[in-house]
Specification:
Length: 286
């Protein structure tokens, strides 16, 4: 139980680190270009984090990976082989879920800030400022996490990129198609002319309609999501109740080889069921 407690505390610490870093603490989140920020981190790790909308300083990445590796090792050493393997797999799974959670939280915050930011740009455009300068001036007071992305866009423009190319790179980095929309609008304006203000105003209207649609869909599917949560928690809840009321029953099953196979099969089916439920709920909002 001592080692299990250490494992759970360590996983909790890793999760807290991820959540804290995803917030608005200026000390933890770098505004440098990704190639500079994570220069000492293997490329496949930075690519995976970027694909999930997560940006972390190298020290936090290594600390989180070290904690997950230590939890997996302690599980294999302190628990029976079957439970140790499941616990090690759970450590990796929780780390992946933490990355997904932080990335989704960060993307949602950026989408919440984007309409107001584009409105600021259009107001500066109405004063006769160029598109590049309007974006650069609007970024000065923009808070994180969108401020981090937009400051990188401005920095890339200063390095010689066109504005639409800078947005294209950030769209690939953050996997936000809204940046692709901005890049397309700016590219069309650069090539064919027209009123960029009108295009940006239309983009703001679309973003706000999309946000309103997502909120309405979330309200309509609230019962479905609660049902899925109850179904996911019911089997482990029943197992915990049975162990608390009659621990000899589950311990006796574990002492028998056929009982071990049944319990391991139940755990595997539970994990598969949770994954299926998560995929089903996620597909509703797509």
């Amino acid at each position: 139980m001592f080692w299990i407690a250490i494992m759970l505390l360590s996983i909790g610490l890793a999760f807290v680190l991820f959540v804290l870093v995803s917030g608005e603490e200026p000390v933890l989140e770098s505004e440098a270009l990704p190639s500079d920020t994570n220069a000492k981190v293997p490329l496949f790790i930075t690519d995976y984090l970027a694909a999930n909308g997560v940006e972390l300083p190298p020290v936090i990445i290594y600390v989180s990976l070290s904690i997950a590796a230590a939890c997996a090792l302690l599980s294999l050493l302190a628990l029976p082989l079957q439970f140790g393997g499941v616990a090690a797999f759970a450590c990796a799974g929780l780390l992946i879920l933490a990355v997904k959670f932080v990335g989704n939280r960060r993307r949602a915050k950026m989408l919440e800030q984007l309409p107001s930011f584009v409105n600021q740009v259009t107001r500066r455009l109405s004063a006769g400022i160029s598109v590049e300068n309007a974006f650069a001036d609007s970024v000065e007071t923009l808070e994180r996490p969108l401020g981090t992305i937009m400051r990188r866009v401005v920095r890339r423009v200063h390095m010689g990129y066109d504005l639409h190319q800078a947005f294209d790179k950030e769209a690939k980095q953050t996997k936000l198609h809204e940046f692709n929309v901005l890049a397309t609008a700016i590219r069309i304006n650069e090539q064919y002319g027209g009123s960029i203000r009108a295009i940006l105003d239309d983009i703001v209207d679309i973003l706000r309609l999309d946000e309103a649609g997502k909120r309405e869909l979330s309200a309509m599917t609230g019962e479905t999501r609660v049902t899925a949560f109850v179904l996911a928690m019911l089997p482990p809840g029943i197992a915990a109740y049975m162990f608390g009321v009659n621990p000899d029953f589950l311990l006796g099953m574990w002492a028998d080889p056929s009982g071990q196979r049944m319990l391991m099969g139940a755990v595997i089916l539970q994990v598969v069921g949770v994954i299926v439920l998560v995929r089903m709920i996620s597909s509703i909002g797509k």
